[in-house]
Records
---
Amino acid sequence: MALLLVLVRALIVVVAAAVVSSSGLPVPGYDGLAIGFYHETCPQAEELVLAEMREIVREDKTLAPALLRFMLHDCFVRGCDASIMLKSRKMMAERDALLSCSLRGYEQIERIKAKLEEACPMTVSCADIIVMAARDAVFLSNGPRYQVETGRRDGKVSCDIDAYNDLPPPGSNIVDLKIYFSVKNLGWKDLVVLSGSHTIGRAQCASFAGDRLYNYSGEGKQDPSLNTTYAPELRKACVPGDPFDETYVEMDPGSPYTFDLSYYRDVYSKRGLFLSDQALLDDRWTREYVERMASADSTEEYFRDYSKAMTNMGRIEVLTGDNGEIRKVCGAYVD
Ligand code: HEM
Ligand SMILES: *[C@@H]1O[C@H](CO)[C@@H](O)[C@H](O)[C@H]1NC(C)=O
Ligand SMILES: *[C@@H]1O[C@H](CO)[C@@H](O)[C@H](O)[C@H]1NC(C)=O
């Protein structure tokens, strides 16, 4: 009897999901989130975000990768709750952490929020805007366009210490990377799939020159695993002995603004930029995935995996229902 009930219930959920998605009504998702959460309260929300993102990326293409990275920095630190946007006069907030010093996108999230406030006041959370902007950044870089769950609410706390604890540094090895991800409920597959985000964008020499070029393992030498035809190019770009070198280097030099599989070909041929990229070859499962994607002739499987992994990242420690708040301004002061 109980089994029958479970089966019937499962059937209802499946049927309901099918009916609802084709009619555009919200599809219930994880822990109070739903695909199309704003269907009734702000039906044009997703369209408005995409329109604004198109404009933002047209004005400055480097903002597409920046806004993709923005979601990582929000979600990994205190969950996807827009706490990265908060400011403090008395303490160091997340955005003041050294690890986030090159993070860009604050004004753009605020700009999108202003559009949404015009259309539907006090309705769409900043946390959802960050997730939608990242989705559109991928799409506008020729990546997949996947459906996002929405319904997150905004947190009220932001502390730099959380950023230091929860964001994986670029010098991380595979063991540490798996731990950073697993405490956020993400597995090895999310790790290897989401690392592929480094197929777009750039990094400052400060983020890798010590680890890879000049002081590998604190031994004052070059990382012996770094591709020897690639290394001289990087050494030309980054001056030795400057731990704060802000010079930018493209992470996937062949196609830095196209979301494709070349990240995996880079890593496979030892041209990954960070130790954390190269570390994906040090675990059997992540290595097999890198190898498969490096030789894949279609992006189909990767795009499917990416959509799933981004959905997983968007579920980290979310505030839903009556938790958190909806703010008028994302970058509000907490004190
Ligand atoms: C696996 C652990 C990861 C590490 C250690 C890492 C580290 C970094 C670092 C150090 C930078 C360059 C910052 C700079 O020098 O300006 C960067 C850039 C970037 N990261 Fe990651 N990241 C990781 C995972 C991810 C994930 C999961 C995403 C997905 C959202 C992501 C998306 C990006 C993007 C798009 C950029 C380029 C930003 C730009 O061009 O402005 N990263 N990452
Ligand atoms: C290299 O790293 C070691 C250990 O972290 C440090 O003591 C040393 O000062 C570094 N050398 C340079 C040139 O940065
Ligand atoms: C280094 O990169 C080149 C492409 O620039 C590639 O042909 C070569 O196989 C790579 N070396 C290694 C060890 O993967």
Note: The chain has two domains: 35-165, 168-309.
---
Amino acid sequence: MDMLQLSCIQITIALLLFTQAKSTTKEISALHPDDAVPSCVAGERSALLAFRAGLSDPGNLLSSWKGDDCCRWKGVYCSNRTSHVVKLDLQGSDDYRQALAGNISSSLLGLQHLRYLDLSDNGFDKIQIPEFMGSLHQLRYLDLSSSQFIGRIPPQLGNLSNLRYLNLESYSDTYSTDISWLSRLTSLEHLDMSQVNLSTIVHWLPVVNMLPTLKALRLVGCQLRSSPDSIQFSNLTSLETLNLSDNDFHRSSTPNWFWDLTSLKYLDISFNGFYGPFPDEIGNMTSIVELDLSKNNLVGMISSNLKNLCNLEGLVSLGNNINGSIAELFHRLPNCSQNKLKDLFLPESNLTGSLPTTLLEPLKNLSVLYLSDNKLTGHVPVWIGELTQLTDLGLDSNNLDGVIHEGHLSRLEMLEELRLSDNSIAITVSPTWVPPFSLVIIELRSCQLGPKFPMWLRWQKHASSLDISNTSINDMVPDWFWIAASSVGSLNIRNNQITGVLPSTMEFMRTREMDFSSNLLGGLIPKLPINLTDLDLSRNNLVGPLPLDFGAPGLATLLLYDNMISGAIPSSLCKLQSLRLLDISKNNLKGSISDCLVNESSTNMTDLSIVNLSLRDNNLSGDFPLLLQKCTQLIFLDLSNNQFSGTLPGWIGEKLSSLSFLRLRSNMFHGQIPVELTKLVDLQYLDLAYNNLSGSVPRSIVNCTGMTQRRDNDDLRDAFSAGVYSAGNYLVDYTENLTVLTKGQERLYTGEIIYMVNLDFSCNSLMGEIPEEISALVALKSLNLSWNKFNGKIPENIGALMQVESLDLSHNDLSGEIPSSLSTLTSLSRLNLSYNNLRGKIPTGNQLQTLEDPASIYIGNPGLCGSPLSWNCSHPEQVPTTRERKGDAMSDMVSFSLATGSGYVMGLWVVFCTFLFKRRWRAAWYSLCDNLYDHVYVQVAVTWASFRGRING
Ligand SMILES: *[C@@H]1O[C@H](CO)[C@@H](O)[C@H](O)[C@H]1NC(C)=O
Ligand SMILES: *[C@@H]1O[C@H](CO)[C@@H](O)[C@H](O)[C@H]1NC(C)=O
Ligand SMILES: *[C@@H]1O[C@H](CO)[C@@H](O)[C@H](O)[C@H]1NC(C)=O
Ligand SMILES: *[C@@H]1O[C@H](CO)[C@@H](O)[C@H](O)[C@H]1NC(C)=O
Ligand SMILES: *[C@@H]1O[C@H](CO)[C@@H](O)[C@H](O)[C@H]1NC(C)=O
């Protein structure tokens, strides 16, 4: 070993002498050593080993770092003149699990000849950039980007006066409050400090202006606020690339210092809140190649000064308000003898009018034409077909119409992205047409492709995204489709009339998201593609039992509602450990829910990650499912309209501590409302209606802060969202299945359910007083305690429920006067106090005067008087007796069993809650209704309307 080191040193010295003898050119000659080059310097080898000792290397990137000759190690480059390590290229990996981690040892200082150091894309342990790096004086090139450094950028880097290239781009939390050290890097050509927080630095530009050789400056997302009008003596005469995207300038786009930089080739000032007109100044930037002005608040047509920018290759302006005709815009594009314009990217720009009928000169070389989300009208012109360089065509979300035929497409050999969604375009090509292109992205949502399945898709075998939803296809899915689509990542055929069955080979597809909902697909659910994460098969005709092996271990969303799936819920569901959203409502599932706790070999089965579970409208039975003990992250649980029975277990309140929505209506649960339920502090929606619950309402309900205060709904929103957001749509869009019962009707909620705060105990046998605490649930929008046996008075402070839109206390035994505070409920639009024993004067004022059908609100309370009833309170002797009043409303035929107020309540309670809501009793109920007096009929019909949705469904 010693001998070896000795010889190393001898050779090094020899080489040193040799190189000194020659005239030295100071250029990095960092090549991997060939056999002629001697091995590395021993001291540097130990420095490298010490450096490695501080790192952890899960991806084995440094596995070649063994043996004596460190110049042969991967990423280590020695000078072939001096043998010194001059370059260390240890760029990590996009996959952070494969990248280097750990700490950076100061032994790096042993490499004093280092000119090039790249440690980018690694995952160091959230350390600061080491100050000692400022002592690597020979460095020309330093890349520390995206490597999980945090904290202050050390000003010692200012000692690296030889630096040409410095990249500190950071996606962790780095900052600098003083960048004056930069001004010492006078040879710097490339500076990138993107995402470094520079928010406290006002005078950053004068510092940058000390760098006369700067060619590229990237300060993306640095939270910069100041952008001066001009620089007095600009040093930045070599600057070619300037990227100031995503800062906080929020000022007029002109005047501005960068418009004077006529050497600029690439300028990106997107996402900055610049306002004012589209700057004329651009016309002076004759070198400009690419210009990105996206997402500012620029208003008005682009400047006609652009006409002379003969080098312009790309004009990008997403989301500014150009607000003019597309033809006018095309006429203002550079028009030179040698046109270079390739990319025209102008989505969301308020462009109007039709595309011109002839191909204009400036457009002839386009490879990207992106005019999505504008207000374009008219046909898609045939000259599109002459743009033979076209790779991306985006015309989606406009008001275009007419037909696209082979003439538009047959010469577009380079086309990769075709986006035509959300227009009124029909794509009509011959069934035998073979397209010249192989598309990667196919977005044709809401185009007219049908009624036959579009045959040309057969040749698109490399698409990563295919959306042919809502395209009027009324056909059987052809076998070739499953082959063509097998490599598609995102597949959407939603909302057509596609028949056929899912293939048994589906498991071999590469699809990650599938939306087949609202079609006519039948048959069984086969084993799913292995990498599938989101699946929507809702609203089809699927039958049979659920698969015993779903086969998609990463499945996060599974929407199967509104099919005809039968059988029991298999324990295979418990194997879907990533499942977050499961909706199998509106099917024919029966039996009790399989208890994976028992079926798994051990009882320490890990918790499931499900947050949203809906099993409503099935025939499931048995006790409240024990399995749910393992679903500790549940936020939304809906078991309504099944045959579940038994008592509600107290562990709901302990195990399901995140629960915000609990819907158990229309089951056969009995016993008391467990007091533990009120430990669910986030609970904002509790629906226990139509069960056989008894006992009283726990006073501790007031602990449910979900009902007492408004809250930030971001976590809730998350619980209802699924899939990936692409092209303005969630691929798997779940929110539309959510319905809630409020204001007397089953309403379809789209996303708004997260704002619903609801308490519904109706149609049970609850008794005792309505706890005064209920008036503390001030976030409630709907409160329904009807059809129970509550007695005592209406809580005096009920008027505190300022958000309440619907309040139903009807069909109880409530007595006393109506609290006058009721008139302060300004949001109220539906009130029902009928059929109690309330008495005294009806409060007046505010919202109470505006309610519809006012008389029916109070009917069946013999002791009430005053408007809107016809009994005047000033003459109590005129108030009729209970018997007289009842006789008014009821026919003799039914009143015999309903002689007293409470008897009447009980009678109808039995009818409603026991018979009415079983489907088979529906017909009988209609005939019963026919025998009632009109007034009662109306009252019942109103109530009836509120339950129909679910009965019909
Ligand atoms: C280093 O080696 C390469 C190839 O072997 C050679 O082209 C280059 O001139 C050498 N540099 C010096 C400074 O000797
Ligand atoms: C231009 O750069 C040189 C070299 O860094 C510096 O000395 C000079 O002050 C700069 N000029 C301005 C106006 O900042
Ligand atoms: C363009 O440059 C010329 C010469 O420097 C100047 O006079 C003119 O004001 C500039 N135009 C704009 C719109 O800035
Ligand atoms: C489009 O222009 C109209 C005025 O013509 C304006 O009211 C609207 O806000 C603009 N839309 C966008 C997205 O800028
Ligand atoms: C599934 O995903 C893995 C990891 O991304 C990939 O290697 C594999 O090829 C995919 N398999 C299929 C069938 O798509």
Note: The mean pLDDT is 85.
---
Amino acid sequence: MAMTEQQAIERDRQDPLGHFKSEFYLKENTVYLNGNSLGLLSRRAEQTLLTSLNDWKEQGIDGWMNGEEPWFYLSEKLGKKSAPLIGAKPEEVIVTGSITVNIHQLVSSFYKPEGKRTKILADAVTFPSDIYALKSMLTLKGFDPAEHLLQAGNPEDHVLDEEELIEAMTEDVALILLPSVLYRSGQVLDMKRLTEEAHSRGIVIGFDLAHSIGALPHELHAWGVDFAMWCNYKYMNNGPGGTGGLFVHEKHFGTSPGLAGWFGSDKDKQFDMEHEFTPAADAGAFQIGTPHVLSSAPLLGSLELFEEAGIDAVRKKSLALTEFFMELADEKLDGLGFTVINPREADKRGGHICLQHTHSASICKALKAGGIVPDFRAPDMIRLAPVALYTGFHDVWRTVDTLARIVKNEEYRAYTNKRNVIA
Ligand SMILES: *Cc1c(COP(=O)(O)O)cnc(C)c1O
């Protein structure tokens, strides 16, 4: 039996992370379940952004070295502070670029086709941009993507079979790129196991952490993962277009960046302005141009919240919220045409619930009209992320109760079953 409404309210009162909700700009009476696409603004993130704006206002060019938060070292500082979230050493992480740009950077650095080993292995259900990047990278290196990009799994499936992924690690594969958590079903892949299997076959492997950073802990260094990239605008609450990040395992320090640029320089050498590139000794070498300061600054405040809450506590609460969601769904949504797409097991479940329904698009519009912000994904999926830092158990109760009402009373019929331009 799932908790009653009263019990859910009581559970929120006892929640050790409950006070974080007031750190965020969350509209009165709104349940925001779209933090897996764009996390909310916190007061701390706003504050650190304002600090950098003020440094610009007061100091102009001198903000680079003498600002309250000197911009010249901001990417390194943010990398160091992000490292605990992914189980990395501080110097293995740099905040820079976006997922797609970082895929281009890291694949151009670590994809080294040689002899029979010329292929890249990915999966058939990942986010399209990752695939566009891999295909263009193959083309640039003179290979035909139709032949050299292998995509394991079935595009019609919602989950990937790890055995199938491992079987696809054949001797013609040079590099593997996989998501840590699938963007639709929320399935968590076993990064440790996949890394071991790849390495035992002499293949380099990287992960796209878009849907896992800030949602669950990682041990990238200990697992020996070669490289990783992510964005910070989803669970990290760094704002629209916020700067992403990348990880390069220390065993690869010294590898030349495929796409070099002056901000990848050793910081003491950068302003010598020599035409001979002297890269930084760590992950900083993989930066390209001038950092996007105003799109990175909010992350500083946002990371404070993660430091205070602790990623293990965030994951624990997130699992309790999604567990409660599924229990309620089994009771209240039974017979209403919903299918739970996300894996049910805790160790396979990411931060969001994924429901499928024939009227998903119109149900999402009805939810939004009712003060609950969902995330629609074509063709027929509703993603609902009860983000631990700003969502409570009663919010989950209200969401499932509203979903049941929308379908029972056919309230969704007031809306067209078509997606808007963005989701
Ligand atoms: C969100 C997301 C992206 C978006 O890439 P950007 O370059 O940051 O726009 C790419 N891949 C995955 C798996 C994502 O979830």
Note: The mean pLDDT is 97.
---
Amino acid sequence: MDTNDLGFNSKLIHGGGFKDPLGSATVPIYQTSTFRFDSADHGAACFSGESNGYIYTRIGNPTISALEAQVALLEKGFGGIATSSGMGAVNTIYFTLLGEGAHVVSSAAVYGPSRVVLEQQYSRFGVKASFVNTANIEEIRNAIRPETKLLYIETPSNPTIDITDLRACCELAHQHGIPVAIDNTFCSPYLQRPIEMGADIVLHSMTKFINGHADIVAGMIVAKDEAMYKKLRANMVNIGFNMDPHQAYLVIRGLKTLGIRIERAQANAIKIADYLENHPKVEWVRFPGLKSHPQYELACKQMDGPGCMISFELKGGLKAGKVLMDNVKLAVLAVSLGGVETLIQHPASMTHSKVSAEGKEKAGITDGLVRFSVGIEDLSDIMHDLDQALAKI
Ligand SMILES: *Cc1c(COP(=O)(O)O)cnc(C)c1O
């Protein structure tokens, strides 16, 4: 059976082509650090690449390979590279593409550590970074320099939910011979497949939607072509950003339900966004499924659905935010996203409490901003929870 021809949900169950030699119906955990060679010649062939036999788990492992093949299939790339965390994926990409004197153009509203590591660590090796609003293509065009080696984009952005036009960005970058990497964590391949729109590299924090059960930290890179895949893989292996087989097993298990989890959470999110938009204590709501989103048309064009992440601004700023956080009963007060449970977060009093007023303004963090990762609970329970907590403000 060629799993390439299957629909997305069938690929989640059967994709990747793993076939256990002992007939296990699911992918077993190959909990081993090393692999036995049949002979000196076999060992030599494994090292030379003549044989694709396994050598050592940091380099490759059957459980991890099964997951890599499956996510690569979903993202329509050449191959997957599993990493210990999302940041392991980010750093493998930076380390591979950014040498001495290199310049990167990045979305300003990227995941915090993806920016911090460029500013505080790669800068020590002469790497320069421009952080721009990639939702405005002109800002990217103006930031590109002769030494630009990477365009790095996150869309929708966090927590501002701005949408970057992936097709336009890839076209612009490729005119300058610059590879494009997309952090696709917020959408997962169920809602957005950047390689189809021209991206060279896709990465995930699989901690979020792909695993979906908030019980593991993991990352993945998918490269569009073989040359890029080989370069990235070599660095992942040599730095030691590799995944563990048990971690891979859990992600494979979580991945099977990606489609039904997102469908349900997204259906909840659409109703909740509408409810919030009409609530007297809410100033505004940012959700790609609302016609009021400034890039509603673009979201419809490049995403297969609006997703499960809602940002909204409370009237009453910091104080209102804290009251809401202290009064929700069902929603879990926690960072992260993309799990089966609804999570709520107030950046001004939590993740960004130590950021300067200017820094918060630049990142689009207002005092009443709330980020809501909608889970798969019953809609009536999530609504009731929000309703009673909003009433306390
Ligand atoms: C969480 C996250 C990361 C980092 O992933 P970890 O698995 O926590 O290392 C990167 N990008 C985005 C968009 C994230 O949400």
Note: The first helix runs from residue 8 to 14.
